[in-house]
Amino acid sequence: xxxxxxxxxxxxxxxxxxxxxxxxxxxxxxxxxxxxxxxxxxxxxxxxxxxxxxxxxxxxxxxxxxxxxxxxxxxxxxxxxxxxxxxxxxxxxxxxxxxxxxxxxxxxxxxxxxxxxxxxxxxxxxxxxxxxxxxxxxxxxxxxxxxxxxxxxxxxxxxxxxxxxxxxxxxxxxxxxxxxxxxxxxxxxxxxxxxxxxxxxxx
Length: 203
Fold this sequence. Notes:
Blueprint: E1 2-6, H1 11-22, E2 26-31, E3 43-47, H2 53-60, E4 65-68, H3 76-87, E5 91-95, H4 120-134, E6 140-145, E7 149-151, E8 160-162, E9 175-177, H5 178-191, E10 197-202
Helix pairs in contact: 1-5, 2-3, 3-4
């Protein structure tokens, strides 16, 4: 499969790129600094930025799918979707946020008063992207929320999936490694089990 990846150099984007290449997919990494991208078979790097939707849409055009793992800067979600729609590519997978998931108490994760205030603009932008996707009638989209805690860790291939509620262990901890998140995302790309909906992951 030929995949365009927007935001390929971030922590999650890097793992997604590795997983895609491991499975034999051809990847176009759309990044601000392509000269910093690794030289790998089946990997092409191209300079692009979603704030320039015309240029980036031209880079995405002709691919089988587009994945975005761009940071949730306030206002970016509408730009990303504008870019994808202009490209004509129907299959779109978003690296989403966990803030719009329901916690065990029934409240949204982002409504937890313990969340630092400086995190909220980014968290709310992730929720905004999900809202925009739910109103979309053009794309075959998937919004993949990580566990509440995502970070470095083992590539185990063993995890659980959920839909709109946090996936947590018996002790209430919701976590996933970058590598296992990438495995599940590429599984979704290949199998298409959550088209036009959100899903999540955890151990």
